[in-house]
Amino acid sequence: MLRQLAFCSLGAVLLLLGLHGQSHGQSDKIFGAKTTPTPGIIVEMGRDKVVLDTNGVKRDFPVNEITQINFAEEPSDLNSARSAVRQRNYNQALTELKKLDAAPLARDVIKQDFEYYKALCLAKLAMTEGGDKTAATAAMLAFARAYPQNYHFYEVAEMMGDLAASSGNSADAARYYGPIAAAPWPDYQMRGNNAIGRAQLADKQFEPALATFDKVLASDLATPEAAQQKLLATVGKSICQAETGKADQAVTALQDIIAKNDPQDAALFARTYNALGRCYLKQNKPKDALLAFLHTDVLFYAEPDAHAEALYHLSTLWNDMNKTERAVAASNTLKTRYAGSVWNNRKP
User: In three state form, how does the secondary structure of 150-204 look?
Assistant: First the structure.
């Protein structure tokens, strides 16, 4: 499968043929996380970099520094769809994209972005509300095959891995995450290895997962992105430790993360509290576990994967404590809000 994501020279040629469709003084714009958008004309696009011509000067933009590209001559509905995706409103994004289904798009790169966001929305909805995961995977794979040098390449690999993981196919998920771990940037490599570690963890391969998380922690990269990935690796490692008889050590590490970091980082804290809950279960402390999972349910419910996991455990823990109504409420929320989650189909 990874070979299908690798290289397609014909697709690259076709892509380049669509890069020069600017007119009337319009500009493409490349957005970075920390800079104002840079206008110009895109003259080359690849999975690793995008080249922008600004007043005759060509400038390389590494893909790991790009958050978004707006294309000259693109329809406003496409940008509206992007905005909806940033807000995690995938149904609204699809509504905007459907307006473009029958419309001719001025440039090939615009068509590519349209196809990418359509596939992305299908995937996100399939993993939460319960859409067709097979269709979503097919859409992502079709995009990867048709446009292997699109700058969304690594996002597509991650999404295909997430789709596989949400279906319980951990081995496939780890393979799809592989290109991210092999990307040319250390921060992407760390992110890819964390994803692979979580897939191994879901497959109960605790020792291999531990080695994968340790690989992330061994990085000497000192950037905010690297620090974030190391914290997430610590969370994953803690679960491995709890599953292999070292729950006390794991609890200490997780409590340290909670004490020293900003709870505004919902993705980190949701995973951390869920991991803490799993550690407490290993220590046979169900009340402490329930409180940990409640933190995710009450404070970090905007993180869908973590919230679904917390609800799964809460439905069991509330039932064990003879709180039947609360157990049913947690179970119903899991079924209605996260029908597509792997946790919805997991047996207690």
Answer: CCCHHHHHHHHHHHHHHCCCHHHHHHHHHHHHCCCCHHHHHHHHHHHHHHHHHCC
Burial state string for 110-141 with b = 16 or more CB within 10 A and e = fewer than 16 = bbbbbbbbbbbbbbbbbbbbbbebeebbebbb
Write down the pTM of the prediction. Answer: 0.88
Beta-bridged to residue 30, according to DSSP, are 38, 69
The per-residue pLDDT for range 283-301, each reduced to its tens digit, is 999 999 999 999 999 999 9
Strand, helix or coil for residue 220: coil
- Residue linked to tokens 């900003």: 262
The Cα–Cα gap between 135 and 125 comes to 11
348: pLDDT confidence band, cut at 50, 70 and 90? low
Using CA atoms, how far apart are residues 146 and 267, in angstroms rounded to an integer?
32
* Domain-wise residue ranges, the chain: 1-180
Question: Across-strand partners of 50?
Answer: 45, 61
Residue type, 60: D
Tens of pLDDT, residue by residue over 253-282, are 999 999 999 999 999 999 999 999 999 999
Pick the CATH number of 1-180 from 1.10.10.10, 1.10.260.40, 3.40.630.10, 1.25.40.10: 1.25.40.10
Dump pLDDT digits (tens) for 304-338.
999 999 999 999 999 999 999 999 999 999 999 99
Phi, psi (degrees; rounded to nearest 5) at 26? -75, 155
